[in-house]
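The protein record passed on below.

***
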Amino acid sequence: MKLKALATTIVAGGLLAAAGPSLAVTCSTVSTIAGWAALGAAGCTDNTDGDTTWVFVSATVPLTSAFSVTEIPFTGGDLYNVAFDFGIPQGTGSVGESVSYTATGTAAEPFDAANFDSNVTQGQGVSGNVATGHITAAGGVDVMLTSTNGGHAPPTGETSFANSLTINVTDTLVTIPQGSVFNAMNNSFQTGTVGGKIPEPATLLLLGAALAGAGFARRRKQD
């Protein structure tokens, strides 16, 4: 009986060890930047197949801000949306709010394109907001996406770059006039072996998920 018990313990321990990698924290279980930051260098993985990892580096926005990662698979790759919703207006008449993080894909599906969007509430006749999404990686990848007046950068589609297994991202509010408030930032990234164009339905679905999931319904563009 003791031998049976010992054998059972060994088998159970082996199963737990084998299951270890599947116990990685998925980003869907993390709702705030603070919770994400608490994961440290391990970060969190996407919720579909765990082939990307997202690691917090630093932030000057409130750590209570909402954080989410959404994934839409498509033929030849995946599309990811990373959203930060500050919950309360940030940056009225000021600059410098930022979030930095790293993202790691797989050799089969490296990162190869991106889009950046700022979320700004502006009064009648007010303009002049500028925010940037800066992407760097080894191999000469250095992409600066500039969102003006709460718009997408680029306005449609994504900016392509050389395939990169790991990218470093910093989103920053550069300027904002008095009378405007900086509510959120939104990043999208494509992975794929051939850099295929993201199907438009997938882009629209992902944008819709970001708007609903991160509370972006508050967006009010300049009239």
Residues 136 and 142 are 4 Å apart (CA to CA). The chain has a mean pLDDT of 78. DSSP finds three helices and twelve strands in the chain.
